[in-house]
Specification:
CATH architecture: Sandwich
Number of strands: 11
Low-confidence stretches: 1-11
Number of domains: 1
Largest sheet: 5 strands, antiparallel
Helix content: 10-25%
Structural class: mainly beta
Strand content: over 45%
Radius of gyration: 31 Å
Distance between the termini: 90 Å
Shape: elongated
Order of helices and strands: HEEEEEEEEEEE
Number of helices: 1
CATH class: Mainly Beta
Length: 195
């Protein structure tokens, strides 16, 4: 038994070295390239109630195998979304958003079965992005784009649906009594103002 184990222990490294040195059969290198589709207009202003914004830098990119045209990575829409709270008296909590691709008939173009619907998340779990009056936030997006929308004259518009929660913005002022070195002052008062 020890002889067999010794023989296996000696032959195993030799076999491994010979296997590793054997010539490998390789085919031609596969070249993958990005196919970029421009989206016009370059910048779009959007408005949803008290939230206004601008969408910029949009483009659609898919990764394709050069020569065969086989799609390596399906099309993705990328860009930047800047949202601003234009209200003078309301805070906005951005919850999420959805992107829909609309055809010439006014209907949403469906995503392929294997892909998830394009969504925007403005916050981490359990919280939301808060915008006080006049504040803005910019978010980059990289979402799925349907292959059907790449065909000529299929895509008419892109719709952005926002979910946000407006609430009254309040600013309050508190005055309270103090004394310095034994001097007395009137009792505390509270003034509040809703905005």
């Amino acid at each position: 038994m020890w002889t067999r184990l010794g023989l296996v222990a000696v032959l195993a490294p030799i076999a491994a070295a010979n296997f590793g040195c054997a010539p490998r059969v390789t085919g031609p290198a596969v070249v993958i390239e990005d196919k970029v589709y421009t989206v016009t207009p370059v910048a779009v202003t959007v408005k949803a109630g008290i939230v206004t914004g601008e969408v910029t830098g949009m483009k659609v990119t898919e990764r394709v195998e050069k020569g065969s045209g086989r799609i390596e990575t399906p099309a993705q829409l990328t860009g930047s979304l800047k949202l601003k709270n234009t209200s003078a008296d309301q805070t906005v909590r951005l919850i999420d958003g959805k992107i829909l691709y609309i055809n010439a008939g006014g209907l949403a173009i469906k995503m392929e079965d294997s892909r998830t619907a394009p969504a925007l998340r403005f916050a981490s779990y359990g919280s939301a992005e808060r915008l006080d009056p006049g504040q803005d936030v910019t978010q980059l997006f990289d979402v799925a784009f349907p292959a059907e929308a790449l065909k000529a004259k299929k895509l008419k518009e892109i719709r952005l649906e926002l979910v946000y929660l407006p609430s009254s913005y309040r600013e309050e002022k508190l005055n309270f009594s103090v004394s310095i070195g034994g001097q007395s002052t009137p009792v505390a008062s509270l003034k509040s103002a809703s905005r």
